[in-house]
Amino acid sequence: MQPKFDRERHCSPVVCSLVAAALVTAKGLTKHFDDFVAVDGVDFEVREGEVFGFLGPNGAGKSSTMRMIGSVSPVTAGTLRVLGFDPSTEGRLLRARLGVVPQEDSLDLELTVEENLLIYGRYFDISRKDLAPRIDELLEFAQLTDRRKDRTEPLSGGMKRRLTIARGLINRPDLLLLDEPTTGLDPQARHILWDRLYRLKQDGVTQILTTHYMDEAEQLCDRLVIMDRGKIVAEGSPSGLIAEHAPREVLELRFPVGVQDGVVEQLEGVATRYEALADRVLLYTDDADASMRAITERGLAPEQTMIRRSTLEDVFLKLTGRTLVD
Amino acid sequence: MATPVALRVVEANFISYRRVWKGSAVTSFVNPILYLAAMGLGLGSLVDDTAAATTLGADSYLEFLAPGMLVATTMITATFESSWPMLAAIKWTKTYEATLATPVGVSGLIGGHFIWIAMRLLAVSTVFVVVMLAFGAASAGDAIVLLIPAVLVGLAIAGPVSAFTAGRESEQGIVLLFRFGITPMFLFSGTFFPISQLPDLIQPLAYLTPLWHGVEVARRMAIGTATTLPIWQHLGYLIVLFAVGAWLTGRYLARRILP
Ligand SMILES: Nc1ncnc2c1ncn2[C@@H]1O[C@H](COP(=O)(O)OP(=O)(O)OP(=O)(O)O)[C@@H](O)[C@H]1O
Ligand SMILES: [Mg+2]
Predict the structure, then answer these.
(1) pLDDT confidence of residue A5
(2) How many angstroms is it from A83 CA to the middle of ligand 1?
(3) Architecture per CATH, A247-309
(4) What topology is assigned to A7-237 in CATH?
(5) Closest chain B residue to A93, measured at CA
(6) What is the DSSP code (8-state) at residue A151?
(7) Which residues in chain B are closer than 8 Å to A115, comparing Cβ atoms?
(8) Which residue puts its alpha carbon closest to atom 18 of ligand 1?
(9) The whole model's pTM is what?
(10) CA-to-CA distance for B152 and B238, rounded, in angstroms?
């Protein structure tokens, strides 16, 4: 098994604090499928111990990026280093240290839960003796201990997803790649998964995940990038991105049908910025109460008002003019 | 010491096979018994021994049929092993994709696939040869060498069929392969009657089939009939077919699963 990059051993404290162990470094990373540009020269860095997210709508290039990191898709242009390896020439060594949870589960549905883990462990050449306790542990982690002898096919979507995550952990990876870990799950199943991923983070497992859901990104990610049409359009921590690109609060106003177009001009100045959507107006403001008072003073009477805090969705809307889930 | 990646794939196949081995073992025994009894003894009783000796070069129809049937059986096994489970792993369950995310690369995946198939072919043909011995259709001395053309025909089928499967988008192609490729080959490649009985126009087609080459060699080993070409050329053709098929399988799979 490949020894992990050991900071204590390999460099002096000063240098190491500067290096801050980037596990993944991408520069100008590009992926073409024939003429189509799926990933268009992206730069990013993932540091040890963090959870790093790719947020973006369908077709943004999230999975294509993940697959290049996982060395299952050749890089078209740019440079990529993962755990110190070059994925194009040292793929085998790299994959031995990665855990992968693909967008689709890819379990062997005819096999039992336990056999899926056994086979995968053997692909990493972990001895059966070492695998036995590890499988017990992972089944516990995935809350599947009582289903271990059952065929995989009839498991629920959430169970299959947890099994896929457990499978990705069989080799105790240094880096876990999760492609849309909770898409298609009900809210309760999502919360269970979030809890499991949070525990992994506590154990120091570096994670890269993709998602369509801003609440998921806000919950799980230390840092994230927003991708759109193969490009990175913003980068930062969830709160940092919101602070940078959107005022603290959003005041949503609904006017009676036909009235909105006539009144939007009069909203000028009551907030930092406004966005007129088809069915409502969003006012971005640092003080929603003050903005509300200003609206009333101008004699405007919206049918409905709602105050909420700004989310990543607002950031995305501002940067791309589109919502996240197409 | 690290286990070679291909053998990890073979082990995975073993683990899957544990689930079905009983049914599979029974089939491997029952099929040859049924064929040799029905065709060899039943149908064969219509062929009198002088006719068998003059036109077939065998003491009985059973003796003529058995080595051909052995080789045809491995062909069928090889076709199944390199079509349905492989298409499922590529397309439906996507387990190949999961496998390639591990240190097992395309070469390990393909290597394991063919080693596994070779082992299945060896098992199936061993059972068949045991049944032949029981029917008195082979002598103990010939039993072992008969395994050589049997396994090679299987591999010569498994290579190209795997490549074909690796390029398929739906099961339609595989259904057609069985209907218009494997079934005619099974019937018209010299297993049931010498290809000299075929119309002259069609005969050359039989020369192209791996099954005919295997039947020639197996029959020579079992009952000493002369082969059309030297044995090494028949077996060489089978090996080349396998090698080309295996190489193409790797290319198609890599293009498909590692875009
Ligand atoms: N093998 C392929 N061949 C051709 N085009 C591809 C291939 N894989 C992906 N693409 C295209 O590349 C673009 C990016 O796809 P990708 O799967 O990376 O998007 P994504 O951000 O993961 O989207 P989603 O949220 O829907 O999973 C899409 O337009 C897709 O059609
Ligand atoms: Mg995707």
Answers:
(1) 47
(2) 25
(3) 2-Layer Sandwich (3.30)
(4) Rossmann fold (3.40.50)
(5) B103
(6) B
(7) 15-16
(8) A61
(9) 0.88
(10) 6
